[in-house]
Amino acid sequence: MTSTRAIGALALLVAAVTGLIGGPAGLGYAAVFVLATVPGWPVGRAVFGAGHPARWIAGGLIGYGLTTVALWVPLALHQAWWLPFVASWAVACVLTFVLFRRNAELLAPLPQWTGDTTRALALALCLVPLVMVLPYRNVAKIDEQGGRNYRAYFTADFVWHEALAGELARFTSPPRNPYMAAEPLHYYWGYFVLPSVATGVVTQAKQVPPIESFLAVNNLGAGLLFVGAVFLAAFAAVPRAWAVAWALWLVVLSASAEGLYQVVSQWQKGVPLSQVRGINIDAVTAWFFYGLTVDGLPRSLWWGPQHANASALGLLAVTLAICAGPAMRVRAALVAGAALGLALMMSPFPAGSMTLVYGAALIWMALSTPRVLPRLVLTQCAAVAMVALGLGWCLLNGTFEGAGSAVALGLSSAAMHTPFTILGLALGPALVPALAGLAVVATRRFPPSTRAAVAGVALSALLFFFVTLVLEPIWVGWRAGHLFLISSPALIAAALGLLYDRVGRTATVGLAGVLMLGGAPTTLIDIYNAQDTTNLNMGPGFRWTVRLSPQEQEALRWVETRTPRAALVQMSLTPRGRETWSLIPSFARRRMAAGLPISLLRTPEYDALAARADRIYQTADVDEAVALWRALKIDYLYVGRVERESWTAGTAKFTAHPEHFGRVFSNDEVAVYVLY
Predict the structure, then answer these.
(1) Residue 418: per-residue pLDDT
(2) DSSP states of 384-432 as a string?
């Protein structure tokens, strides 16, 4: 297959999956996503060359980030409607096309690129639509009774992203916390600006926005750029295209042995294989060994797109460091710094990690030729300035305010709980060849191009064992594991390349196949479970599939279309727990006075407000309920089946005292009240 046919086949696959997961609205949004990458096109050309496939990956990443900034400007100036958005984006395009006019000398030329390299890249990129299609195809799956079904995995993240995009689509600057409306939102929301602006513009046109389609297609596009960035960084380090492609297939599809362990364990105990439907298969190390867990890269594609996007921008900076070296020109440093600064806007933790890898790699390379150190210091001032701008944006918008106090340094007790077992299960099929690759580059005295990968793997180990997020200890395991998985392909490719040179193709393919088989069960089970909306059984404190009945959908549509956009709509909290914790913000697009978000740092203030809000449902004292209602400034009270079953005596007062509680909507399952 020629490289042109390979790219054409990839394009057809992506288009087909876009239609499947996004429908007609998604296909239209795909054009919006492509336009969002335009400001970066001249940057990608200046870095890698006009005809180079890598140009579109680099340009797409930078363009998406610059479009985010461009769309934020009208939001910050309170001029949020379609014309200022288009004008600001057009200014960004003009600036980059002027500043990065065609140059004869490339800023960071990659190693020799052939048609074979393009085919290997296309093979790697095919992973994205193949991994994403089934879980995203079944988001909001309609059953025979008309219920909408959401797999619990998406309840925690994709559904939260719906609430986040719905909040940003209000065009309020700064955005409010939809689970505590009295407070601003402290979350890294930069990645979500583009789909949120599209949602807001559609809403201004008096249409109900297909927000789920917008998010799904946006994540697909971002996933392609992410996997492309991993390929470029690995290829720049070890320019053996097919070894890099196989390394990517390994870390995406077969990095974890948890699925194999669980299948064998159940077989030995005589437990039916079907029981894996009730297990978070990529968290076996946490469920059964009580240690940290590592989420595989498919989960970054499914529900961590902001982290993946930040990592991709960081990898672009690392690729520039590898290709341009410590003697890089100022313009290259500016591009690398811009990538890292934009990464901070998308997700600070992976961005900070990649900034450390970028700096460590440059310094390590410069130590081999000390005479370039003064030049390195001077040129990297440009990169530092761009990173400072990104940090300033985060501080201005308060995106991670309060997060610093939640981070603790020191040996992690969770990480040290059976560490060899945990790492062997969570990362074994990728860890073994990565360590072999580390030995290969060590015997060669760490060639400069591989030092960024070594730095990334080393930093991931430090984060895993010595950093803890106090309020959510398991979170660092996810992020440290993610850093290992995106840094290790270069080392894995080095090991595969040496093996190929020593023993030939057959043995190399055989060994790679064994590693793939060892890790494939985890990913296959995870893909199946993530798309399985027929599993209505209870999980650990929540149902594996959240179902919105037709009556609930009717009530939520009424709230979304018939109440003021600034209205506070309250539901009960403790009885709903982790199952429908985001019902109102995600599906009715309204803020709550009190909520219990599992996506934000859980501070005591949330629990205190939740207790007061639940008391409105619980108490039979009308005066107490009225006083709490007014104190929390609630506009509408949502009383569904969960509320009535949990607070039977307390909810009876709403119908018994119409002089205080006016029922403005009702059906067989849900009633909505206002306070007189």
Answers:
(1) 82
(2) HHHHHHHHHHHHHHTTTTT-GGGEEES--TTTTSSHHHHHHHHHHHHHH
One-letter amino acid at 218 equals N
Architecture of the structural domain at 548-675: 3-Layer(aba) Sandwich (3.40)
Cα dist. 66→42, 403, 411 in Å? Answer: 12, 25, 39
Longest dimension (CA), the chain: 86
Distance CA 471, CA 603 (A): 8
Contact (Cβ atoms closer than 8 angstroms) between residue 529 and residue 151: yes
- Residue 153 banded pLDDT, cuts 50, 70, 90: confident
For 335-354, the pLDDT digits (tens) are 999 999 999 999 999 999 99
pLDDT at 405: 56
pLDDT exceeding 90 applies to what percent of the chain?
Answer: 85
Residues 6 or more apart from 636 whose CB is under 8 A from it?
A: 559, 563, 567, 568, 569, 570, 590, 664, 672, 673, 674
- List CB contacts of 16: < 8 A, sequence separation 6 or more: 129
In the chain, the amino acid numbered 208 is: V
CA pair distance 665, 667, nearest whole angstrom: 7
Pair 453, 315: CB distance under 8 Å:
no
What secondary structure, in 3-state letters, does 453-471 show? HHHHHHHHHHHHHHEEECC
Q: Hey, how many other C-beta atoms are within 10 angstroms of the C-beta on 289?
A: 17
3-state secondary structure of 289: coil
Dump the DSSP string for 325-368.
-TT--HHHHHHHHHHHHHHHHH-HHHHHHHHHHHHHHHHHHHHT
Q: How far apart are CA 465 and CA 292, in angstroms?
A: 10
- Average pLDDT of the chain is 94
The 10s digit of each residue's pLDDT in 69-110 is 999 999 999 999 999 999 999 999 999 999 998 776 899 999
Classify the phi-psi angles of 270: left when phi > 0, otherwise alpha if psi is within -120 to 50, otherwise beta. Answer: left
Tokens of 111: 């190693």
Among residues 229, 450, 443, 247, the alpha carbon closest in space to that of 342 is found at 229
The dihedral built from the CA positions of residue 330, 331, 336 and 338, taken in this order, carries a sign that is: positive
- Enumerate the domain spans of the chain: 3-137+218-531, 548-675
User: Are 342 and 313 spatial neighbours (Cβ–Cβ below 8 Å)?
Assistant: yes
Torsion, Cα of 109, 112, 118, 121 (10° steps) = -70
**Residues in Cβ contact with 199 at an 8 Å cutoff, skipping those fewer than 6 apart:** 165, 166, 168, 169, 209, 211, 214
- Beta-strand relationship, 176-177 and 180-184: antiparallel
| Residue length of the chain | 676
Q: Please give the average per-residue pLDDT across 570-578, as a whole number.
A: 93
Residue 546: phi, psi to the nearest 5? -90, 125
Question: Tokens at residue 189, please?
Answer: 């929301």
Please state, in angstroms and rounded to a whole number, the distance separating the CA atoms of residues 75 and 70: 9
